[in-house]
Amino acid sequence: MKKLSTAVLLLGAMLVAAQENEEKGKEIEDIIIVGNRNVKRTKLETPVPVDVINIDKIQRSSPQMTAQDLLNYVIPSFNAVRQSASDGTEHIDPVTLRGMGSDQILVLLNGKRRHSTSLVNYQNTVGNGSVGTDLSTIPVIAIDRIEVLRDGAAAQYGSDAIAGVINIILKKNTGASASLTYGLTGRNDGDTYQAGANYGTSLGKKEGYINLSLQLSHRGKTTRTQNHDLDIFGNNFAYAFADDPEAARAADDAKIKERGLTRDDFNFQIGDAQIRQGQLFFNAEYPFNDQFKIYSFGGFSIKEGKGFGFRRLPSETSNVVSSIYPNGFQANLGSQVYDVSYAVGAKYNVNDWFFDLSNTFGSNTFNYNVSNTNNASLGANSPTRFYAGAHSFLQNTINLDVSKKINRFNIGFGGEFRLEQYQIKPGDEASYTQYDTNGNVATEGSTVLGAGGSQSFIGFSPNNAVKKDRHSTAVYADVSYDLDKKLNIDAAARFENYSDFGNTLNGKLAVRYEFVKNYAIRAAVGTGFRAPSLQQQYFNNSYADISTSGSGIVTKGIFRNDSEAARILGFDKLKQETSVNASAGFTLRPLNKLYISVDGYWIKVKDRIVITSNITDPRLDQFNVESGRFFTNAIDTETKGVDVVVSYDWILGSGNLNINLAGNYTETKITDFHFPENLGTPQNEFFGPDQINIIETLSPKTKASLGLNYGIGKFNFLVRNTYFGKVIRDGYPFGGVQEFSPKVVTDISVGYDITKNINFTVGANNVFDVFPDRQIYENSYYGVFKYAPVQMGTLGNYFFGRLNFNF
């Protein structure tokens, strides 16, 4: 029935009559793009694949409200999935491009390097062990377009550009616009509010401008759980191991009833975290004359999140203060994320030599606050709220770019100096300390009432505190050759020196040849590198997790690569990843409005930086953890794939139908493991099936979207189907291997121009309420998690209304 309904919607959208504005509704635009310096090319004239997404047009009619969510439904090789019960990762969505990690994508803002977050993903989610860039810190109302270069570009832009480059271009137009959006899921939760305003005006007499954007948003929490099957009065995992689970559950039901309680008293709240965000951005340029101009852009974002940890049950006497929480508790993890960025630069043009000197600064600070919890070792004197510490990352980049066009050649060269700093700050003493029965800090042999630190998220201690920095210096050169748009050759080289790991030299060669008008082949090959981030080098903490022995919730640790624990186990010092990236494809335009591109790619990464599985080793007992995890260059990987993009504008009756079909197939395999010689631990602990699963099969290998956008008169209709291929989730060490079948998610919307300046749109994301397959019981934390956060996530259907204003 759902497939039939989808077909009817598709057919209906295609048969509606016509539109006055031919360009309205296009999702992938034919615009000059990123990837080279001062070369005027459209997307079909580039030697490597690039998509240019007009955010203003697609956001008007799309249910999605953030940049990463929009890209997730427009670029099939791009993936972003919201996570649940995963500490900080609940608050910043990890993203991937072409199957690579979050930190193998370089993000630019107005062509300048954007700073990453200070957050390390370590909760066994997509992008585990990586450090990405939070695209949601940039308000959608401020974005003009997003350019996605789907090819390795380390030789052009430096570290992190292994999978590709996302370049976000801010608005610079004059005039005013605003947008108001309200949405709600079909389960009456996850309510969203977003209000944005953009204003631009000219500066001076020579095309100067200043553009300002303000956006406020709220996303309510969701709950996607069922009553869990835990023995709330005894062993937490009794049902899982009972000979007769139904009898065990019935016995607990009787005990619950005797105490005047219900199973609802023991429910989890697991779903999307609550997020509130405020953002203020600007983009400005002032020309003094035809040769010299100055520019500046940047912004401020504050994000407050509220997520949920694992339930602590009354029977967990070492974790729960019964006098405070007689029925146990589920802790709330609150975040305050401050993100600041600005760039200042000057451009100078003399005799067709173009000079661009700039300074770009960015910082990200992530504060943790835990509430509805306790420090069990303090007993009845325990606070129920804790400041658990913070981590921050700062980056400052100075660039000089020089370019000149000489006949058919365009040459470019320049240099870069970048400073980075990473810091972990401790929280309240009670958030990380275990006390004795007298209220003093516990020492060996002390009598204690229970576990120390704030339950669910243990605070950063002074032992975790760190403040480290490094700098890098780079020089680059690139040359482009264009022969009447028939033959294009790009060559680039980059030398970079890092203060903490040395030198690297990388190059790239890309060629495009148009053998018949509108028919071209293209190919590229290059080398790349990715320096280990400061976060990967120095992040360390203690965290609560399920014991690998099944004995309950215990403390585990993440240790620095240069720590005493790493030395004892024989880990090597982190070094850079190196890569080889090759692509080949073709573009064609058989009809005036029909564009087709097909591109295959191959990416080989050596010494890929990952976080290990939980290593249990007697030598770690002295650090008071059950197990430890470490960042290390543990694996080599090989990624193969193909991208297909087809776009067609069809004049249908009095209107215009834009058809956009895009698909991606990506397969990543681990080709080698690098074990420390003295570790002496089995592979399942060093880099086990769960970690291999995250790299190879947790993201869809196949993803495709078919978007139909039809405009006629004052109406606009959108129908977009997105296909998420099968994924596999390995619940090791607690569960089993489960295959999740492919799913199709349908977005629809109808827009109406009330006046020339006001548009009203209503619609839905996932209108048919599609979910991933239900998890097998052994992977569901004993029945709590019905759905895994894979493919389209666990939101379900979502309905929205939006008012757009343009003046």
TrEMBL record:
One of its GO terms (cellular component) is cell outer membrane. It is found in: Cell outer membrane. Its main location: membrane. InterPro entries: Beta-barrel_TonB, Beta-barrel_TonB_sf, Plug_dom, Plug_dom_sf, TonB-dep_rcpt-like. The keyword Ribosomal protein does not apply. Keywords: Cell outer membrane, Membrane, Receptor, Signal, TonB box, Transmembrane, Transmembrane beta strand, Transport. Residues 327-767 form the TonB-dependent receptor-like beta-barrel domain. Residues 1-18 form the signal peptide. Residues 43-165 form the TonB-dependent receptor plug domain. Gene3D superfamilies: TonB-dependent receptor, beta-barrel domain, TonB-dependent receptor, plug domain. It is a multi-pass membrane protein. Belongs to the TonB-dependent receptor family. This is Ferric enterobactin receptor. It comes from Chryseobacterium culicis.
